[in-house]
Every structure is written in C-alpha cells, then in structure tokens.
UniProtKB/TrEMBL annotation:
<dbReference type="InterPro" id="IPR020472">
    <property type="entry name" value="WD40_PAC1"/>
</dbReference>
<keyword id="KW-0853">WD repeat</keyword>
<keyword id="KW-0677">Repeat</keyword>
<feature type="repeat" description="WD">
    <location>
        <begin position="252"/>
        <end position="286"/>
    </location>
</feature>
<dbReference type="GO" id="GO:0006367">
    <property type="term" value="P:transcription initiation at RNA polymerase II promoter"/>
</dbReference>
<dbReference type="InterPro" id="IPR036322">
    <property type="entry name" value="WD40_repeat_dom_sf"/>
</dbReference>
<protein>
    <submittedName>
        <fullName>Transcription initiation factor TFIID subunit 5</fullName>
    </submittedName>
</protein>
<feature type="region of interest" description="Disordered">
    <location>
        <begin position="292"/>
        <end position="318"/>
    </location>
</feature>
<dbReference type="InterPro" id="IPR015943">
    <property type="entry name" value="WD40/YVTN_repeat-like_dom_sf"/>
</dbReference>
<dbReference type="GO" id="GO:0016251">
    <property type="term" value="F:RNA polymerase II general transcription initiation factor activity"/>
</dbReference>
<feature type="repeat" description="WD">
    <location>
        <begin position="118"/>
        <end position="149"/>
    </location>
</feature>
<dbReference type="GO" id="GO:0005669">
    <property type="term" value="C:transcription factor TFIID complex"/>
</dbReference>
<feature type="repeat" description="WD">
    <location>
        <begin position="202"/>
        <end position="243"/>
    </location>
</feature>
<feature type="repeat" description="WD">
    <location>
        <begin position="160"/>
        <end position="201"/>
    </location>
</feature>
<dbReference type="Pfam" id="PF00400">
    <property type="entry name" value="WD40"/>
</dbReference>
<feature type="repeat" description="WD">
    <location>
        <begin position="91"/>
        <end position="117"/>
    </location>
</feature>
<dbReference type="InterPro" id="IPR019775">
    <property type="entry name" value="WD40_repeat_CS"/>
</dbReference>
C-alpha cells in the first residue's frame, strides 16, 4: 500500500498508472505531485531538455484551485523487447487533472508541462475518467452536468444534462459506447455517447454516491455511497442485483474490478480495503454484525476527499453489518483509503494519506 507522509494531509485524490510505475496525487494547495512507486528516481524521457535534478517525484503546477481528480491515461504493460535507445521510463504518457478553478488540464509526463487547458464547466469539476482507449475522457462537475471530451479538441463533444444536483462521479463502459454518472441526487444514470441521451437510471442509494466502476466484461456496474453500501446493477435489464455491506460510514471512496469481473475490491474512510464475491447471490438472513473494532479503523471523517459528501460524523459504538459477500478485509493504520486498483495480474494496489 502506498501512503503519503504526514505532511501531505492536503491530498484530495490519487491514481496509479496502469504499468504500476507511477502514482499521482492532487492537493488542496492547487498542485499535483507524481511519485515512482518503487522510490527510484524518475528517469527523464528527454534528458537534454530536462533542467530538474534527479528525484523520485515531480510537481505539476498550473491549477489555481484545489485539485479534485487525477487520472493517468490508460497504458499497457511495458514491452520487454524495447530497443535501449528508444527506452522510456513508463508507458503512462499523459495525466489529466480537474480542479475547483473550473478547468481540466492535460499534462505531458515526458516534458512535465501542461499541454492543454479544457474549459467548459462553469463550476468546480469533481471527477474525470479516461475512455478505454485513452482518446476520449468524461468529466462531471458542480454545474450538474457531465461532459465528453476528445484530447485533441479544445471544446467538449457532448454535454449530458439531467441530474438535479452535482455530478460527483463518472466512468466509462468498456465498449466506449456508454458513460455513467453518479450524483448527490442519489441516482446513477447511463448515457449513450453517440446521442447524449440517458438510457438507464438506477435508484436505491440513500446516501451520496462516492465511488463507481463498471466491470471489465461490461455486464455489471458497481456504485458505493457514504453509508457504507455497495450496489451491483445488472446493466442489461437495468435492475439491482444485490447490495453488499461491510464498510463503516464515512464513504467508500474507490472501487475496482478483477480481470474476470468476479471479484470487487473497495476502500474508503473506515481505513479498510475489502474484497467482495460478486458472483454469489446475497442472502440477507446470513448478514452478521461486527463492532467498529473489527477491521474498521476509526478515521476522522473531515479528511474525506473533496468533491464528495462523505464528511458525515459516525456515532460511536455503532455496529457495522457485514454481508456474506465479503471475502476478506484488510485494516490499515489510521489510513483512509483514497484509491484501490486491480492490476492486470489481479494484484491489488491501494493508496491513502497516513495521518498519525
């Protein structure tokens, strides 16, 4: 698990590159920092153009407000037969970020400079997500809209309007034909990219939706809220498959699917990483009650990532219901989990800010 030092208590968001080389964090102080996961120095793609001393991190400065989301462009595992003369340190070539300054920025990880500033939202941009092939991306903001962008066009290609409150979370379907938006109006909507029309609306959450991810086989959507519940939606008929519980209140901030789409991993404010069995049916009668001490580290909810409504206080001593879908839980040391990610080898990486 990757953790920040205790001086990095202004972190709002995290993302890991697909090749497991880099991790990026966006901060309340308007900047982004990118580290190597192994602690080694970042090797310059163009040494003759690089005027920075060797270091294991780089800082990206350009936003004029808190950074609420960062996302590495999708990339494949580094090839083994690359000519040494053509070697580049990572396949993650670009990074997206969004901010309270109403803009989205595209950063080059070769030159460590901002390439494009995308303007369209007229209020803070809470979340963004790349399309599966790294050409399109979608954003959601406080202006109650989601917007579809192409990296080589300065203006949005589609605007998705329909939510009654902020669009807090966005993600793509793996076939690129649909996007999903989640709002603090407690609904999730599925939109057709080609027409911009809503084709599904999922209702059932009683809290604000704080994480969302579509399965890799494209059949199931997982959404999670600040009440500690994960909902699985069958996309074909548009119905609820089951509800899984185990996290304490305060928000589930990240979800990720295994390669086979049979296992889901989650992390959030209670300081735990939890693994879930997606395939088995839920039997509500077998749900067990666990005290706060059973793998649910007590976290100050005020440390919730900005852009979510997960900053609600927990009642002391309240029991947590754990459904039988939970395979295992991994508590951390007072570390709210900002990001979890299944690698293509079905290993899980998790990251958060450690506040002793």
């Amino acid at each position: 698990m990757f953790t920040f030092h205790n001086t990095y208590d202004g972190a709002n968001c995290l993302d890991f590159s697909d090749d497991n080389v880099l991790v990026a964090a966006g901060f309340e102080q308007s900047y982004i920092r990118v580290w190597t996961l192994d602690g080694k120095n970042i090797e310059a793609a163009y040494p003759e153009m690089d005027d920075q001393p060797p270091a294991n991190s780089r800082r990206l400065i350009g936003h004029s407000g808190p950074v609420y989301a960062v996302a590495f462009q999708p990339s494949a595992t580094r090839a083994e037969n690359v000519d040494p003369d053509d070697y580049v340190p990572t396949n993650a070539r670009f990074l997206l970020s969004s901010s309270a300054d109403k803009t989205i920025r595209l950063w080059s990880l070769d030159t460590w400079q901002c390439m494009v500033v995308y303007k369209g939202h007229d209020r803070p941009v809470w979340d963004l997500c790349w399309g599966p092939f790294g050409h399109y991306f979608v954003s959601g903001g406080s202006d109650r809209t989601a917007r579809l962008w192409v990296t080589d066009h300065i203006r949005q290609q589609r605007i998705f309007v329909g939510h009654e409150q902020d669009v807090d979370r966005v993600c793509f379907h793996p076939n690129s034909a649909y996007i999903f938006t989640a709002s603090c109006d407690h609904t999730v909507r599925m939109w057709a990219v080609t027409t911009g029309n809503a084709v599904r609306m999922f209702t059932g959450h009683t809290g604000n939706i704080t994480a969302m991810e579509c399965s890799r086989d494209g059949k199931i959507l997982a959404s999670a809220d600040d009440q500690g519940s994960i909902f699985l939606w069958d996309l074909a008929p548009g119905r609820l498959l089951k509800r899984m519980r185990g996290h304490g209140k305060g928000g589930i901030w990240s979800l990720s699917w295994s390669v086979e789409s049979t296992v889901l991993v989650s992390g959030g404010a209670d300081g735990t990483v939890r693994i879930w069995d997606v395939t088995g049916p839920q039997d509500a009668n077998q749900a067990r009650v666990a005290g706060e001490g059973s793998g649910a580290a007590k976290i100050d909810p005020s440390n919730a990532p900005a852009g979510t409504a997960a900053q609600s206080k927990k009642k002391k001593g309240k029991d947590v219901v754990v459904t039988p879908d939970q395979i295992s839980a991994f508590p951390t040391k007072k570390t709210a989990v900002y990001k979890v990610k299944f690698t293509n080898m079905n290993l899980v990486v998790a990251g958060g800010a450690y506040l002793p």
